[in-house]
Write a structure and sequence with these properties.
The chain has 434 residues and is mainly beta. It has one domain: Neuraminidase. Helix content is 0%, strand content 49%. The protein contains no helices and 34 strands. The strands form nine sheets. Strands 1, 26, 27, 28 and 29 form a five-stranded mixed sheet that branches. Strands 3, 4, 5 and 34 form a four-stranded mixed sheet that branches. It has a four-stranded antiparallel sheet with strand order 6-7-8-9, with no helix packed on it. The radius of gyration is 19 Å and the shape is globular. This is VCBS repeat-containing protein. Pfam families: FG-GAP_3. Keywords: Signal.
Length: 434
């Protein structure tokens, strides 16, 4: 006999937001990024599964997406100039293919076919930086199912050396880079999901890294960002804890070590996180994409989808969250000034709606109504850059579940403490602003 329990939770919060405006993507968009991909000076969007590019019009709206096929189950994306031609390229993590796809940009918002490089088993998150101090961008990827980190050194022409691997803890889910010990060498910070900690690997400056030192965070940590939250010129860390419904703040000591966590409520099911000054007070704030849609072991089902804004006090502490609704299953979030009003805006990949939401900031820590744009199926990751050199931020999105246009099919089984989640989605769509 199956016993079903229904949990009803009333949350009282500030909601200075209106209903969403949406842009269609492919099915199940899960990640999103921004950049000026066509060099027109306007921020565009890129979403994963296939890759969807949305080109900015410069007024906060976006042209219809252009899509590019990638590997199976694209789950994470980043932008950078990997071949030194002053044109933005894309690096995509193909989860089911166990590789990284590199799409070199032509500078007009179009991209060449992907070239792939082997990673570990089920790579899930990617970061780019110059790890060996040769002025060429390198890549670091965490591999979910073999609990390793792959480092691929760049040749400066858009190609990469074979991976070197480092040990992480159980089920690493996110990775970032930064100089945590002030030695002018890039270090790595990794979220170890199943062990509820983060690992910090100090860089040697030659492309190699020391063994990780771990720091405890909440249960089910999912995503991480680094910045100076207390204005002491030392990098700090913020980590979303999916199962604890909070954010861990670990203040940096400047020598590569970190203080014990302080936690702040961040909505239900916090996943992706971005940092920025959203209320123009010169103090860094946090915005978290909340996606509480997990089936727990006692058959409780929640489907609460929000973004939570935690305004910073400038001393490393944060205020209670301001909460607003988003599309279904927000998976990834990025920030940039999409309408050129000198106020930070947000772009969110909504997996179950197959859309991205663009949300304009008012400059006081609150936001206007969403505008939604279609992507491919199951958008999972998003990034922003100027891909077509028009001085407008564009967006690139990976679409993890697009089984039609891109002909990519897959099933992703994701281990979650206290829950088992079954997903299915594809790679990216690209949107340019007008």
């Amino acid at each position: 006999m199956l016993h079903c329990f229904f949990l009803f939770v009333e949350i009282v919060c500030q909601t200075p937001y209106g209903p969403p405006n949406r842009y269609l993507t492919g099915p199940f968009p899960t990640s999103i990024t921004t950049g000026d991909f066509n060099n027109d000076g306007k921020l565009d969007l890129a979403v994963d599964n296939t890759i969807s590019l949305l080109f900015s019009r410069g007024d906060g709206t976006f042209n219809s997406q252009a899509t590019y096929p990638v590997g199976s189950l694209p789950i994470s994306i980043t932008a950078g100039d990997f071949n030194g031609d002053s044109k933005l390229d894309l690096a995509v993590v193909n989860y089911d293919d166990n590789n990284i796809g590199m799409l070199l940009g032509n500078g007009d918002g179009t991209f060449q076919n992907q070239q792939t490089y082997s990673a570990g088993v089920h790579p899930i998150s990617i970061t780019a930086g110059d790890f060996n101090s040769d002025s060429k961008l390198d890549l670091a990827v965490v591999n979910y199912h073999d609990s390793t980190i792959s480092v691929l050194l760049g040749n400066g022409d858009g190609t990469f050396h074979s991976q070197t691997t480092y040990t992480a803890d159980y089920y690493p889910s996110s990775i970032i880079s930064g100089d945590f010990n002030h030695d002018m060498k890039l270090d790595l910070a990794v979220v170890n999901y199943a062990d509820s900690n983060i690992g910090v690997l100090l860089g040697n400056g030659d492309g190699t890294f020391q063994s990780q030192t771990t720091y405890s965070v909440g249960i089910g940590p999912r995503s991480i960002v680094a910045d100076d939250f207390n204005k002491d010129k030392r990098l700090d860390l913020a980590v979303t804890n999916l199962n604890d419904n909070n954010v861990s703040i670990l203040l940096g000591n400047g020598d590569g070590t970190f203080q014990r966590q302080t936690t702040y409520f961040a909505g239900l099911g916090p996943r992706s996180i971005v940092v920025g000054d959203f209320n123009n007070d010169t103090k860094l704030d946090l915005v978290v994409a909340d996606n509480e849609d997990l089936y727990a072991s006692v058959a409780i089902y929640n489907n609460i989808y929000n973004i939570s804004v935690l305004l910073g006090n400038g001393d490393g502490t944060f205020q209670n969250p301001i909460v607003s609704s988003t599309g279904n299953s927000p998976m990834s979030i990025t920030t940039g000034d999409f309408n050129n009003d000198i106020k930070l805006d947000l772009a969110v990949a909504n997996r179950d709606d197959n859309t991205i939401s663009v949300i304009f900031g008012k400059g006081d820590g609150t936001f206007q109504n969403q505008t939604a744009y279609s992507t491919g199926s199951g958008p999972a990751s998003i990034t922003a850059s100027d891909f077509n050199k028009d001085n407008k931020l564009d967006l690139a999105v990976t679409n993890g579940g697009d089984n039609t246009i891109r002909r990519v099919t897959w099933q992703w089984r994701w281990h979650v403490p206290k829950a088992n989640k079954l997903f299915s989605w594809c790679l990216s769509s690209i949107y340019h602003s007008r």
